Amino acid sequence: MWVDNATDMLKISSPTLIVDQQKATANLQKMQLRAFKAGAELRPHFKTHQSGVVGQWFLEAGITKITVSSVSMASYFAMHGFSDITIAFPFNILEMDELKSLMQKVKINLIVSSLSTLEKINQCIEKEVDVFLKIDVGTHRSGIEANEKKVIQDFFHQAKKLSNINMVGILAHAGHTYHAKGAVEIQSIADECSTKLNDLKTMFSERQLLISWGDTPSCSMAEMTAYFDEWRPGNFIFYDVMQYHIGSCKLQDIAVAVACPVVEVHPSRNQLVIYGGAVHFAKEFISADNGFKLFGYVVRFTEKGWSEPLPGAWLASLSQEHGIVQLTSEQIEDFRIGDVIGILPIHSCLTVSALRDMRDLNNHAIPCMKS
Amino acid sequence: MWVDNATDMLKISSPTLIVDQQKATANLQKMQLRAFKAGAELRPHFKTHQSGVVGQWFLEAGITKITVSSVSMASYFAMHGFSDITIAFPFNILEMDELKSLMQKVKINLIVSSLSTLEKINQCIEKEVDVFLKIDVGTHRSGIEANEKKVIQDFFHQAKKLSNINMVGILAHAGHTYHAKGAVEIQSIADECSTKLNDLKTMFSERQLLISWGDTPSCSMAEMTAYFDEWRPGNFIFYDVMQYHIGSCKLQDIAVAVACPVVEVHPSRNQLVIYGGAVHFAKEFISADNGFKLFGYVVRFTEKGWSEPLPGAWLASLSQEHGIVQLTSEQIEDFRIGDVIGILPIHSCLTVSALRDMRDLNNHAIPCMKS
């Protein structure tokens, strides 16, 4: 049974992200094993948790090479024990000073898709840096399109002339897996992208390029033996409702729940008003089959974590600080003002970034980058 | 003309919210005048800016009574010169200790819609507190529905027995104005709600209830002379693209733009990749007439601020740290990697809360609550 008033356990009085360390480290172990079996090195993306404490769980699992999404995140994790960091964002030349300072402390790997950026980096830094060329495998967000072979060839050719630039590989993020659903569709994206990237690897075989690949859906579900040299999933450490809907995880694998005080109970419409809004969850939603927007699932805290989602209950809307939880008429009987309920978030990366106030099940703070 | 590389002016290297103080204070003056003419006291909502520095602009305009959306925000502004603060969120009984501590420093006004919460407050606090009953005027988010006159009567009757509770008024937020468009529709919501609230005021005339009213669309547009005793708009200080679409402001009134470095230029699809994503903007969007999602308008920084939005250009998508800007084929000629462009945000309240890194046009930091 759930804890009637979870504050007894959690001492929560405002929206707080609760992390189940056991689930998170189990997710990590599973991903390590999958990467190992597929012959890839796991270089997890730390944008999801942004926390030195969670980073420690990775260090304990033997992981020292990581991925981040900003120069400031690289600086943070350089101070938290990581010595080999890929900044998986098209390098921003306005942060050259920060890059130079970082490169004095740890090994930094950059991603670049423009020659002008590459030349600028070469000009400004004082020692060699490893660089991945960003390849667009179909997401059309950033990078050079995989079929632009002439452009890619030219890029490598020009890069060779730059004495501080060491082109070590090609890097892709199949962001379109987030719009896919189920193992079959994800597998087909992974297959197609592997073909594109390995074609490039073969085409430039004299360079012995690494292929770096990332995204939680494919790394969680697809069969990718010998496809890629490196995997960079991030979300898998916590997972979330979106990943559950894609098929990347089971509901029990979701390692975070936002604890929210109940501030109003409305039996007439079977709704709760909770303290927990867009500034805590961010405003990502899933369009559910019933046509409603789904901002999260509802759980109750137990002695050792939280329950399965309550069937037929969901977080139905968010304003700045308020959330509206829709329940059934039976469920609402069990809720009182002052209860603390849990919400499984839609997108854990954005929720961590919005909320920043994390604790483990033992009520210990889990500081993160900006908390 | 715009500044070719705004970093010369702004020294911006990562996403930063730029505030045009002149526009913001002009917005404030206009709102003060409108409230004055309507016979209402302005008690602005500070959830939009969450900043002591911006708060100072209000103090200089003679405003000392404010509204906030959380107990922690009340604590912050109690430390920044405000002595009369309404916490316009259904009071969360788990924050009783924080409330008691706050009440020793400044005058706090609460909103409540449940008798059990009211009784709990009465039990726990040591001196009288002013309380507003939250009335649901049609948004169906929180409060007692305006037509539940029996319930409201009972609430006031019971409240009278509680020695630490001083019921001073009724409070409503017509959140549904955010889904309305144009002055006529907004006016009709204001009219209808005024009738509902003034009916209640008359019904309980022996109590001399104040009517507290808030929302930027109606306070910006509607004719509300003698409708309400108090106005609590918040967003108006900055406005944003959503308010422009509703009709609350002109584009030139929008007082904030997010400065974002350009990291990739894609002439083949007339797109820029910018450093500026969901963790900076939050993920609110407008479904534009052309069927696309609109995450913001694009401006260029000038010597004294920023340009009008570039016609036909928009922020078209956001991932965690990336934004994709759609331009015309003529416009893209003018953009280079390393430029800093401006984005007028969809919802400034959420963008401030997500970004927290604010500066004025003179490059002075504007610290906010959690920065």
Number of domains of chain A: 2
Mean pLDDT of chain A: 94
> What overall geometry of chain A do the principal axes of the alpha carbons give?
elongated
DSSP strand (E) fraction of chain A? Answer: 25-35%
E-strand count of chain A: 20
Span between termini of chain A: 33 Å
Largest sheet of chain A: 9 strands, mixed
Radius of gyration of chain A: 22 Å
- CATH class identity of the largest domain in chain A: Alpha Beta
DSSP summary: helix tally of chain A:
12
| Largest contact between chains | A-B, 54 and 53 residues
Uncertain runs of chain A: none
Fold topology:
The structure is a homodimer of 371-residue chains.
Chain A: H1 7-10, E1 16-19, H2 21-38, E2 41-42, H3 52-60, E3 65-68, H4 71-78, E4 84-90, H5 96-103, E5 107-112, H6 115-124, E6 129-136, E7 144-145, H7 149-159, E8 165-173, H8 182-203, E9 210-214, H9 216-221, E10 230-231, H10 241-246, E11 256-266, E12 271-275, H11 278-281, E13 286-287, E14 293-294, E15 296-302, E16 305-306, E17 314-318, E18 322-326, E19 340-345, H12 348-355, E20 358-360
Parallel strand pairs in A: 1-20, 2-10, 3-4, 4-5, 5-6, 6-7, 6-8, 8-9, 9-10
Antiparallel strand pairs in A: 1-11, 11-12, 11-19, 12-18, 13-14, 15-16, 15-19, 17-18
3D architecture notes:
The first copy, chain A, is built from twelve helices and 20 strands. The first copy, chain A, has helices at 7-10, 21-38, 52-60, 71-78, 96-103, 115-124, 149-159, 182-203, 216-221, 241-246, 278-281, 348-355, and strands at 16-19, 41-42, 65-68, 84-90, 107-112, 129-136, 144-145, 165-173, 210-214, 230-231, 256-266, 271-275, 286-287, 293-294, 296-302, 305-306, 314-318, 322-326, 340-345, 358-360. The longest helix of chain A has 22 residues, at 182-203. Chain A starts with 6 loop residues before the first helix and ends in an 11-residue tail after the last strand. Chain A is of the alpha/beta class and 371 residues long. Chain A has two domains: 7-18 and 255-360, Beta Barrel (Lyase, Ornithine Decarboxylase, Chain A, domain 1); 21-235, Alanine racemase (TIM Barrel). At the A-B interface, helix 6, strand 11 and helix 12 of A face helix 6, strand 11 and helix 12 of B.
